[in-house]
User: Fold this.
Amino acid sequence: MPNAPHIKTPLPGPNAAAIIARDRARVSPSYTRDYPFVMARGEGAVVEDVDGNLFLDSAAGIAVTGTGHSHPDIVKAITEQAQKYLHMSGTDFYYEPQVKLAEEMAAIVPIAKGTGDVKSFFGNSGTEAVEAAVKLARYATKRFNIIAFLGSFHGRTLGSLAVSSSRAIQRRGFGPMMPGVFHAPYATCYRCPVGLKPETCQAECLGFVEEQIMIHLVSPDEVAAVVVEPIQGEGGYVVPAPQFHQRLRALTEKHGILLIADEVQSGMGRTARMFACEHFGIDADIVTVAKGIASGLPLGVTSARSELMTWPPGAHASTFGGNPVSAAAAIATIKVLKDGVMRNAEVVGDYLMGRLRALMDKHPLIGDVRGRGLMIGVELVRDRQTKERATTERDRIVQGMFQKGVLLLGAGRNAVRFAPPMVLTKDQADTVVKIFDEVVGGLS
Ligand code: PLP
Assistant:
């Protein structure tokens, strides 16, 4: 595809506007579209809308198309599988792509210290992966309480919604939530209330779990699991100090509580490691994966230590879960990630992060640049001392980037996230930074 961005119509163009009008009439209004991008086709990190405008994609369909839009190896794997059979249902029958994917997951997930003693359950989405993880934790421990973190997002079905605490609108009107869920502050180091530096931090924020939740609210021997995003995604691409995860791991082990690492957004090479847990040197008991795993086809995976996954036939299943076409796409995705895309996420991710950090000298609005690989968050503040959240400015930046041909998504209350397809080149990263510089500079 030609170089992007190239915007040749007012946005939205006429074809996009017509489709959006039809959408408004017949599609649920619950979706959160920030700007009127209507996809026509994509290749690598470039997407074209239905009016022929070309954009650089820095959102990857919410951190999904990690291998790039329509990577030829993934398309080939999908096509070959589709020509053989589309569906059989792993609930009642067997097929090899699902078995092979389970074997591949056992070899890569941060569980059981790399021994491969892992089993996987297959669903269709992130929320289903979390539902399965919570059900499995309850089943395996015979306890039912769950501890999760403020600002987290784990999905929108009723179980995972109860564990999520990203935005009140996601819960509003749907209560009461599933009982037995307790939320603690996440390690938001940029806003550390005790002002610790990462080097001196002892994960004091976990005191809330130990000295508040476990003393006043729930006995630890009745807690089934702690659910945590290794890097908080929807909450603002928040990267904790490693001590947070290490102390949390020790705490869960002490009380026989299972640690569920929700790698739905941070997994599958996004952080330049197959899973973000690797950055913190921790192993989980259960790991949830979706988004990037099948490069855009629906798939959710819940992997656990084999000894935990002992639920009997009928306990949990899904008609479509782990369908053969998604499984084939996932197997091809893992290969493409290992063959160079994950390395590119490291090289281009470091480069992009460095260039975004350099913009801090120029734009006081940029309060923090953080991330790993190509999971980069930029937090915007009105004042670097008070860290007042620049919420409206953030929204204007997202709009401004779109108008200039870059698809960017917000995260949290006042951050933007750079989560492009991980095939992004340095030249494309330069273009993204140049436009971001212009848009941020144009705000004042
Ligand atoms: N978990 C995390 C960490 C996520 O970021 C998301 C989605 O953004 C989910 C779970 C839910 O995934 P899905 O939208 O596929 O249900």
